[in-house]
Amino acid sequence: MKQLRSSVKIAFRALAMNKLRSALTMLGIVIGVASVIATVAVGSGATERIQEQIASIGSNLIVVLPGSLTTGGLRMGTGFAVTLSESDAREIPLQCPAVAYAAPVIRGGAQVVAGNNNWATIIYGVTPDYLAMRDLSVAQGEEFSTSDVDGANKVALLGKTVVDNLFGAANPVGQPIRIKNVPFTVVGVLTPKGQSSTGQDQDDLILLPISTAKRKVIGFNPANADAVNMILIQARSAGQIAAAQEEITALLRQRHHLQRAELDDFSIRNMQEIFAAQEASSRIMAFMLAAVASVSLVVGGIGIMNIMLISVRERTREIGLRQAVGAKTRDILTQFLVEAATLSIAGGMVGIVLGVAASVAISQIAGWRTVVGPGAVLLAVFFSALVGIGFGYYPARKAAYLDPIEALRYE
In Å, what is the CA distance from 159 to each residue of 11, 171, 174, 191, 213? Predict the structure, then answer.
């Protein structure tokens, strides 16, 4: 231990004699560590955001969409056929034991007017169950009820973005608006949800009773007045999603009179699959960015090796003198390894500070969520030390095995 402390003192003294060179040598490690921490922070922030969306929307949600339309032998893709209806949505929770709720949904765009202001937004025709399934709450006012759906009442729930553009700071509850020149009364304002993982504004919408939306705003589908754009379904638990999908498929095939050889005229997707794909994509992107940033660590390690080789050449006579007075091979090896590790760890510490600062800057300037966890910091310190020892070993070994006589003759 005493010899190690002595080696550390000598190493620090040697580095202090060439402050500028030591600082420039650390630069590659500083940039590498800062880049790795910043990229990992961005990736972790994206993953956390997706997990929050899963928690807010629900991991046990299932979306049923109309199937494809075949015309003249050409399949037009999902959503073109008019195959789902409100009656399908009513029957699913009654006939499928694994399903808790089902909500029919129609949607369309419209220009909304309030006083002298107007705004183009998305109109959703829904039932009260839709709000509970999507974890949508009301920040002001109240939700519309089943009686509003049955009576096709002209009431509306507004998202925060719509409120900001139509009413500014004023309270919109109880105020009139016009959608496609039809008067509505604002009964509530939805609690803000912010952007989705794809960048979509989740507050730029208006919710209407589905019956009102069909009769007054979006209109009926001429092919089927009972048709809907999709059905949102909530399984009784996340573990019953597979069973619910099987039950829904069997019921809809039966209701749509599909023969065994016929393809489904609908498609079923669950939120777990969608969010798992998004999370996997964000992780892969974060890994690729971190891998690219790690190149800076390798460059920094090469810089350490280069400077240590120069240091060995400059201090050849010193090494010979130490060997002559009894220094062992491991003492010389330890001294130069400590110098390399010190350069690398010091650079890593500075890189951590810059990486955290960069993460905060990215969050504030770009508006991205960043998360700097202790694991990322410890990993950065570990790899910076590993780079220093790994790239410093060859120069240290070269110094340790110098011939004492040749070293003393070196000029």
Answer: 64, 13, 15, 7, 16
